[in-house]
Amino acid sequence: MSKLPYERPVIQRLNTGSMNKFGTRTEYAPVTHIENVSVKSLISEFGSPLFVISENKIRQLYSDVTRAFKTRYPRVQFAWSYKTNYMNAVCNVFHQLGSWAEVVSGFEYNKALKNGVPGSKIIFNGPDKTDDELTLAIRNDSLIHIDHLDELYRIIELAVELKKRPKVAIRVNMDVGIYPMWDRFGFNYENGQAWDAINKIILTDKIDLVGLHAHIGTFMLSPQAYGVAASKLADLAYHTKIKFEKNIEYIDLGGGFASKNTLKGSYLKGSDSSPSFDDYAEAISTALLNAEYTKEHMPLLILESGRALIDEAGFLLGTVIANKRLSDGRRSTILDFGVNILFTAFWYDHKISPAQDFSHYTEDTVLYGPLCMNIDVVRENVTLPPMKKGDQVVVHTVGAYNMTQWMQFISLRPNIVLIDTNGKTHLIRAKESLDTLNSQERMPAHLSSFKL
Amino acid sequence: MWHLFTKSFFNMKIRKNIAVSDSGFIFNPSTGDSFSTNPIGLEIIQMLKEEKSKEEMRKTILQKYQVDEATFEKDFYDFVSMLHQTQIISQDEEKKN
Asked: What is the pTM of this model?
């Protein structure tokens, strides 16, 4: 007689009155495959932990967002936000789909150039651009978004030196009715800084003001805030047209659209509470269409959405290292990935699924990472089936920021695999080794040996 | 490995008034608490009620389920700790035995 499948014995206290109106959570439904590729085979081939990116999902999200905007506004251009995920393969999926590049450092700028993006289709944002980087961007006709007056004056000087008219936009910050208001980047709208900067640029007549840019925040749950931002930028463009008879070619509303992740402390899951692309598109396009433009001079709408276009395409696969019981009786499970590579665990209650079948019995569990650091908590409280050492898990919606903000801390960064539209797997970034790190270090001669 | 557990750990009895249903529902009338357990948990609790020895319990589970001895031992230890913590096994009754 064959033996029955084993499951760890569990006992769970039944609490009455603790369910909310949405019933019990069902996050523990097993996820055994990603894009028809089994989690087991991915881990066996590429190791654990492992980041997995679905090319299908990226293409689907891009198609959703472009449909939402292009059906509402005639001229829309997306620019891929490199900082959100600058794996070259990921960037090139977006470039194949028609996205320009949006970068915030010289390093990212050069990454975009090496990926083959024409300089004129790179938007250069951020407060830190060196003279060399500005010179390169000016020569390449890139769109330089000016963050502060020091940068504006330097670009005017470089324009004279290089005998070239740089194409610029100014970043504008403003009150759009949300808290906290982001006012550290760009020129303020309400106190007149932005209008002053526009006047300086046009009256100096050394550089071309082609656009206006705003980025009102991140993980914005209020689409209407974008409507306010679009109206204020359109107002600046209108006054520029009236005073200088100059048309602003584009309005760039940045990024910040929420993904389907669940923010810590949120009552509702992100999949229920985050606005849809249609919600954002409706708010923005209504504001722009209602602005004072003639049909011939409707500006190009540029969007730099990152998180909402890649988060759901990313998965992190991992393995259970151990189980232990905490002093208050809660179960804790130690996984082989922690906040070092899942940086977003600081902000989100990530959805985590077991990667193998279980019965319907569950336990309240704390999920810890493998770091010998108290801060390494993946989920403070999650209801999961009883998992044992060696069981595998899938963390959902991890495509944004983790593969750029991850830390080489205590353990090394793992492989990243892309599953293409035919279900074929490609290693797009190899895991790090001790040699990767040591190759960057230099040992002073007097420290090269010791006796113990 | 079973010898590593203290004698008193296995000298344990389910409190007499604990009600256990066939579906894994457990009620402790002393505290008013109710619990649910999975089939293996239920099987262990029933064996404890029947005052089976640790050796009998070990053999039964290892023969019936796809589990190695070390894994079951860790899980059994943890489960019994939880039975202590939830007062399904009472310290007083342990002492009486």
From this structure: 0.91
